[in-house]
Every structure is written in structure tokens, then in C-alpha cells.
Batch of 2 targets.
Target 1
Amino acid sequence: QVQLVESGGGVVQPGRSLRLSCAASGFSFSNYGMHWVRQAPGKGLEWVAVISFDGNNKFYADSVKGRFTISRDNSKNTLYLQMNSLRAEDTAVYYCAKDPLLRYLFDYWGQGTLVTVSS
Amino acid sequence: EIVMTQSPATLSVFPGERATLSCRASQSVSSTLAWYQQIPGQAPRLLIYDASTRATGIPARFSGSGSGPEFTLTISSLQSEDFAVYYCQQYNDWPPIFGQGTKLEIK
């Protein structure tokens, strides 16, 4: 069955960096686009970034553009999110999600990893 | 950027009864609308995509309808495990946008 397992979250000071990982299994990872979606405490869902199946195309929400970088290693079945210049408003649970047809639709989600930006 | 508005914010329903949740887009999104269920402390789960197609493994009591700007999620006979927060999401235009959610609670 499809499994997505995020890691790398934690408490970080404003302005610092953090890298999240998402280990995928149970499907042909290299055939699918992947996303990061976040959820601030007690709030709704916000799409963050997408990467195509081959890693050649990447798009970002305006709120993170220029600060976050999405990448993937298909040989390791792993998705990444490099987060730089973190702000308090980046505090959220970060989910990785699989896209069935690169339609910006999310058919499987990981359990999420919490990032807290605080001094 | 499209705005997705869900109503009501909270819906109280007895188990076994029908629940109807609404989602409105600020402009037409054709049928590119998905519904997700999120149980507190868990990740969202895809229920419906393309406005009316149930995702894999989703029970038949969940149904979606609508197109353009107006959509509905109906749960025909509420089970205890259905009490959760439900989000709609459009994927017709970039960026993908979620509604603010409807909390379905036990009456």
C-alpha cells in the first residue's frame, strides 16, 4: 500500500533553515508528481510546492517562493523540502502528498511533520 | 486567485442522518473540485475528485455533486467515524486552493 513518511520537523529560530524529507513506498515514486501542503495550528490547508515526476518542473506558492526549494531523489524514493529564512508564519504541520496525474490533486498524504519557528 | 467558501462552518447532525456540505468558488472551476476528510490529529484523506468521483476505498454513502461555482458533499447516513472536518479544493486554476473547512459534529 502507498506509504508516505515525513521527517525533519522541529523547533527552529526565525531566519534559520530546516530540511524536510518524505520517504515513499508502495508505488512507483519516479512516475508521479509530488507536493508539499502545510497546515498552521488550528487552521486550514495551504498548498506549498509541487515537483514533477522527473524533477524538472517545480512551482511554489507565493508565500514561500525564493525561500523554499522542493527536490526529489528518485533513486531513494524520497522527496525533500529545503526551507530557508524561516518565519513565524511558516509554523505548521507539513504534509507530503502524491498527485495521481499532476493535476494538483492529492490522493495520498503522509502523517505530517511539525515545524515550529520560534525564538 | 480563486477563493473557495465552505458553508456552514460547523454542522451538527445526529448519527444516521444525512449531512449536506456546501462549497462555492469565486469563479467557475468546471468540475475540477475535490473533497477531503480530516479527522483531528490525522492527515487529510481524499474522498471525492472531479466533483463526483469517489476515491479508492471510499464508501458509497459519500457523494459529490455540482459544477462551475457550486458544489455539494452529501453523506447519506452518518457513521461515528464520519465526524471530522471536510475541505473542498479546486484544481482548475493555479494555485490550488482549499476552502476553510466545515466541521461536522455529533448532535
Target 2
Amino acid sequence: GAGVSQSPSNKVTEKGKDVELRCDPISGHTALYWYRQSLGQGLEFLIYFQGNSAPDKSGLPSDRFSAERTGGSVSTLTIQRTQQEDSAVYLCASSLVAGKTDTQYFGPGTRLTVL
Amino acid sequence: EDKVVQSPLSLVVHEGDTVTLNCSYEVTNFRSLLWYKQEKKAPTFLFMLTSSGIEKKSGRLSSILDKKELFSILNITATQTGDSAVYLCAVGKSGATNKLIFGTGTLLAVQP
């Protein structure tokens, strides 16, 4: 595709439910990142995938958060037992070759609202 | 702790004005500094800077990095209402993880 795509664009859920957010990176990009942007905050790094290497999960805020990347392309971010403080815009980005360029291209994000 | 600070937090100008946005950083293992423009959701890439003193230009936008004083500026000349957005500064670190450390952004509003 032409750019990074994410789905859904908006998600409203009830506290305690699980949610899955999807990211399709730019074709050919080997590195994929998830960030979270809370109201009035800067983007906060969550997790990073590079090829077949073990992901860097150092930014995940709790064990309720997990992510996977299947086939080196599509990624899913899962939040279990959602809490109100999980409400934020979740942004996915991809870059061509991690380590060679830091130019990350972002998707439109998923706005998650936990009631 | 790594830190990226942007100033001002917000700015209101009139069309035609020139603005300067600031970004200072304290980040270990600095590799690069990036500027993004965020209008609705997706930040769009503007510039990546890796070397001090070399200005990058794109139309009315330009940016420069000072690695000695640990800051960067983003200039926008002859501003237009379409420049209204949040401008994000981010620092990329060298090493195995290529995560970006973001500032909180500068909200620019350009009035007609």
C-alpha cells in the first residue's frame, strides 16, 4: 500500500473488555513500531519489531499489553482488561531498514476510548 | 532519563508571519533529530537532521541542528492557515532499538 494503515480508526469499549488494534505497514518496511499518544502528551514508545528479531517490548506499560507481528508484515496490538487510562490514540509507524534510517512513517492511528 | 523539550507549547500568529519553533534534548546515544507535522492523527515527516549546522529546506520550512548546544529549530516563513498543526520534535537513538523520543509538541495556529 501507499502508506501505513490502521484499523479500526475509532474504538469505544467498556472497561474490562479486550481490544485488538491492527497495523499494516508500508510494503517492504522491515521495522514496525507502536506508540501511544494520550491527551496533552507526546508520543510514547510501546514496542518495536525488526524482521525476525525478538521485539523490544520495553515501552509496554503493563502485562495487559501485548503485540505480535505475523509474517513480518501485519501487526496486532492487544490490550486485555482495558482500563480508562488506556484511552489514547494508538499510532503505528514503519521504517524501511531499522538501523539505517530513523525516518518512521506513521499511520492515521486508532482512537481508543474506554468507558 | 532521556528528555525532549519543545517550546513554545502553543503559538498564534497571522498569515504571512515567520515563526521559529524550538526543540532541545538530553538524550544518550543521539543519532538523529526529526520533525513531524501532525494535523489530525498521523504525524507526517518533515525533516531528519543528523549533522550540526547543515540547514535542511523544503519550501517555506527549514530546520537546523546544533549538536553542541543540543537543540534544533524549525522555521516557517510566510505562514499560511494550512500550516496550523502540532509540530513534533523527536530524537532517534543509536543502538538496537530505533525508538523515537518525542517532545510534547508545539501547537501552531495561523489566523487569516
